[in-house]
Write a structure and sequence with these properties.
Bound molecules: glycyl-adenosine-5'-phosphate
Structural class: alpha+beta
Shape: globular
Oligomer: single chain
Strand content: 25-35%
Length: about 500
């Protein structure tokens, strides 16, 4: 058997063909960097979301969840710094009228150099760019683009405007009459919904420091250059957790969460070679430590999750702007203070892409008669696979569908089952491989005699005869997994 893990384009086509992800409003030719999840994509996404939510809340006695609104009081974004600072340096091409993020333009150019084996020059361009970005030297950034004669991919010209800052937040009006309406923003991160609710949650859930608040929800960013499928979207979902701790203990918790989060990723059966940490050298002014968990996507190692030690910056700013005290009385040390925060923040859509990239495999299978068969299989962990079990009666008659339906009834309350009686068994197996279904069970005439079925394992394609009554337990066990996350989560 030979194996090939394929490129982004193959994953995009597969995701569309098999009902995982479609371009948004496709009948109107789509909307750039916005995507819709189909039947199996939404199931996969939900399973990842649930797996994260359970690991954060159910498995931690000191983490609770919230679900804050997308719309927030506009002052929130003044306090958080998003109105003043959440912007990227952009440059427009005067001929194509297209706008680009300066760092993306330069990174793309560096990638092209790497593809030609000119790694040294690529590194030096990126290093120079980082220096200029850090000092907000926009003239220098434009000069860098001009020095390397970087052109617009659409017009092919290097006829650029000056570099300017553009805010990435989407704004809209709250209120029906324009004179009454006030400008509000679609949240660019879910984190602020946690900070502004800090005291509500601490008091009502009677939380004692250290404790965390988790949230999953939509975020919106007007990404100028939106690329790479669901890696960079304008509407996306984040899974964030803010961990409030005593000042001075934050770096210990930062180390703890760095380890816990990588454990969570590895618990989904992905090789550790696919992950790496990228420590931030230049820290945001409010952070005293920050790291990205990078994943090897088909286009290279890129950020999947961020872990940030954010000090007391956010709560202090909201205290200052709201005029309300956001403090905690720590009766162990008899002191009032603004807690420090360690944040873990992962993009749910980016995680879906990581799972699909890792799972997508094209295989050639040498058959006994000398011919070669091909299949595309999604090797997704049973814990998050959209369909866990396919139940397949060999033929549509002789009482086999009835037995299959009975098995459906027994199992579907515990996990997602799929019933299919059309096509040959071989075709049905291939379709289930393409959807990432870890188990198929075939009901045949022997089942009627001895209550056994054939179970087929997706990754090995091995088949064995087992008792009909064992099926449910085998799947439940695989969905639950061997390794328990709870052990490492005892705080
Ligand atoms: N509260 C911190 C925060 O929002 P971030 O690094 O801007 O930090 C966190 O975003 C995560 O959200 C990223 O690691 C990424 O997985 C995801 N993310 C950010 N922008 C995204 C976009 N445009 N499309 C998809 N996911 C995105």
């Amino acid at each position: 058997m030979s194996i090939q893990n394929n490129s982004l384009q193959a994953i995009i086509s597969h995701a569309k063909e098999y009902g995982f992800i479609f371009p948004s409003s496709e009948i109107y030719d789509g909307l750039s960097a916005v995507y819709d999840y189909g039947p199996w994509g939404s199931e996969l996404k939900k399973n990842i979301r649930d797996y994260w939510w359970k690991s954060m809340t159910q498995l931690h006695e000191n983490i609770v969840g919230i679900d804050a609104a997308i719309f927030m009081h506009p002052t929130t974004w003044k306090a958080s710094g998003h109105i003043d600072n959440f912007s990227d340096p952009m440059i427009d091409n005067k001929d194509s009228k297209k706008r680009y993020r300066v760092d993306h333009l330069l990174e793309n150019y560096a990638d092209e150099l790497i593809a030609k084996g000119e790694n040294k020059q690529a590194d030096s361009i990126v290093a120079e760019m980082d220096k200029l970005l850090a000092t907000e030297d926009f003239i220098g950034l434009k000069q860098l683009i001009e020095k390397y004669k970087i052109s617009c991919p659409i017009s092919g010209t290097a006829n650029w405007t000056d570099v300017r800052q553009f805010n990435l937040m989407f704004s809209t009006q709250l209120g029906s009459v324009s004179e009454e309406a006030s400008e509000i923003y679609l949240r660019p991160e879910t984190a602020q919904g946690i900070f502004v609710n800090f005291l509500n949650v601490q008091k009502t859930a009677r939380m004692k420091i250290p404790f965390g608040v988790a949230q999953v929800g939509k975020a919106f960013r007007n990404e100028i250059v939106a690329r790479q499928f669901i890696f960079r979207m304008r509407e996306f979902e984040q899974m964030e957790m803010q961990f409030f701790c005593r000042p001075g203990t934050e770096l210990e918790w930062y180390g703890y969460w760095k380890q816990e989060r990588i454990n969570w990723h590895l618990s989904l059966g992905i090789s550790s070679n696919k992950y790496r940490f990228h420590d931030h050298i230049k820290l945001a002014h409010y952070a005293n430590a920050a790291v990205d968990i990078e994943f090897e996507f088909p286009f290279g190692f890129k950020e999947l999750e961020g872990i940030h030690s954010r000090t007391d910056y956010d709560l202090s700013r909201h205290q200052e702007f709201s005029g309300k005290k956001l403090q905690y009385f720590d009766n162990e040390i008899n002191k009032n203070y603004i807690p420090y925060v360690v944040e873990t923040s992962i993009g749910l859509d980016r995680m879906v892409l990581a799972i699909l990239s890792n799972a997508y495999t094209e295989e050639k299978i040498n058959k006994e008669d000398g011919s070669v068969d091909e299949r595309v299989v999604l090797k997704i962990s049973p814990k998050i696979a959209p369909i866990k079990l396919a139940i397949l009666p060999l033929v549509k008659k002789d009482g086999l569908p009835e037995i299959a339906r009975e098995l459906m009834k027994e199992c579907r309350n515990d996990f997602y089952c799929f019933y299919e009686e059309k096509d040959t068994i071989g075709k049905r197996y291939r379709r289930m491989d393409a959807l990432g279904t870890p188990f198929c069970v075939t009901i045949d005439h022997q089942t009627k005699e001895d209550q056994t079925v054939t179970i087929r394992y997706r990754d090995s394609m091995q088949q064995e005869r087992i008792s009909l009554h064992e099926v449910r337990n085998i799947v439940v066990k695989a969905v639950r997994g061997n390794e328990s996350l709870t052990n490492s989560f005892n705080l």
